[in-house]
Amino acid sequence: MIGEIDLNKQEALLKLAQEHGSPLLIVDHDQLRKNYRTFKEHLPRVQCYYAVKANSQPEIIETLFKEGASFDVASYNEFMQVYQYVKHFERKEKKHFIWDKIIFSNTIKDRATLEKIKQYKPLVTYDNNAELIKLKRHCDTAGLVLRLKVPDTGSQVEMSSKFGAEPGDAQQLIEQAFDMGLKVEGLSFHVGSQCTNFDNYTAALDIAATIFNTARKKGYPLNLIDIGGGFPVPYDTQTGQFEKLSVILNAELTRLFAEDVEVIAEPGRFMVATAATLVTEIIGKARRDGKVFYHINDGVYHTFSGVVYDHWIPNFHAFKTGESEICAVVGPTCDSFDKISLSVELPWNLDVGDYLYTEDIGAYSTASSTKFNGFDGAKILHVKK
Ligand SMILES: Cc1ncc(COP(=O)(O)O)c(C=O)c1O
Predict the structure, then answer these.
(1) Disulfide engineering: 246 pairs with which of 42, 119, 128, 164, CB 3.0-4.6 Å?
(2) Ligand 1 mean position to 189 CA, how many Å?
(3) What residues does 163 pair with on adjacent strands?
(4) Is 347 in a helix, a strand, or coil?
């Protein structure tokens, strides 16, 4: 495992942790740009809306903005985080950016948020009747995208138990919107996050195409398909998954949707996961029931929050070599729930003051970190900006 490149990387990480302190989350903006470009290269028909929720660090938004990305926001605050980059634009250009490059992907928006975004003529999703009534009353300038419930079997994080209209209700929800004087632009779905079961995408596209084409035949001028997020990251040794998926998606999009249909996507994890590495320090060591417990200075209430909310299984690497055994790695708080993993193969001879590092921790990590127990969480260092 320790090739020359790893050693170079390790040396650089160690140096940064010694210089800046730990826990230290290092965000590599070259990797961010690479992820964005890979996405665009493999899915040329798809407009890429970065899902800000995956990691809303302003520096990340800025880099992707400069790359030309569009944005998927879920709240007024996320909207404003993007808006600040265009607020100085001339009126027409600003209007165009907001309409063309921002989507409110949260199907449920509170009334106050709708009132605030009404002036911007936003593109928003919905999946039920009550939301239509709310939109009509509080934000009738919006363009609408109907989110569908689709299969999310095997995805790391499922979505369909909370979001999406039943496909059988879709025509009625489209018709009702038009009857109310609202305009439905298209359809969206989300196959679940970290989706490695590509049948979810093909099934979702089939469902969406049937509804889309029926609506068009009935005279409803839909023109947009939003294929959501879910694009898989090579967390384990499995690489090339996204590339395989993109071949399937390109073929299915061509087969199912006429050329004039605009296709957009909302990748979150794919953009940021591999762009960050976390360095942590061992602050305590104990043998409990025969197993080595490494207590480190970051945990599930902080940068490892993805273990809880994202069902993520983190990787750990030591900088020192030594005979390894199955160890536990736990967080710094007083809560016994704060166990990051009870089964990590690590050298048993690490000491207090030694460092560990965790790769691919850019998505759903700092985004859901708390200050529980008075711990601040990781310092974030942006490199290669
Ligand atoms: C509506 C919506 N779009 C996009 C995303 C991003 O998904 P992913 O990180 O799997 O690409 C999410 C994630 O929760 C979401 O809820």
Answers:
(1) 42
(2) 10
(3) none
(4) strand
**Ligand 1 near 266 CB (within 6 A):** yes
- For tokens 């001879």, the residue is 349
Distance (Å) from CA 194 to ligand 1 centroid? 9
- The answer to whether the CB of 172 falls within 8 A of the CB of 184 is no
Q: Is 230 in the pocket of ligand 1 (CB under 6 A)?
A: yes
CA 24/CA 147 separation, integer angstroms:
38
Distance CA 365, CA 61 (A): 16
Full-model pTM: 0.97
Report, as an integer, the average pLDDT of 102-113.
98
Spatial distance between the Cα atoms of 310 and 368, rounded to a whole number of angstroms = 10
CA angle 46, 52, 58 (to 5 degrees): 120
- Ligand 1: centre distance to CA 19 (Å): 35
pLDDT tens-digit map of 272-317: 999 999 999 999 999 999 999 999 999 999 999 999 999 999 999 9
For strands 317-318 and 276-288, give the pairing.
unpaired
The distance from CA 19 to its chain's CA centroid, rounded to whole angstroms, is 30
The minimum-distance atom of ligand 1 relative to the CA of 229 is 11
Output the six-digit token pair for 80: 């404003």
Query: What is the set of domains in the chain, with CATH numbers?
Result: 4-26+274-383 (2.40.37.10), 29-272 (3.20.20.10)
195 is catalytic: no
Largest CA distance in the chain: 70
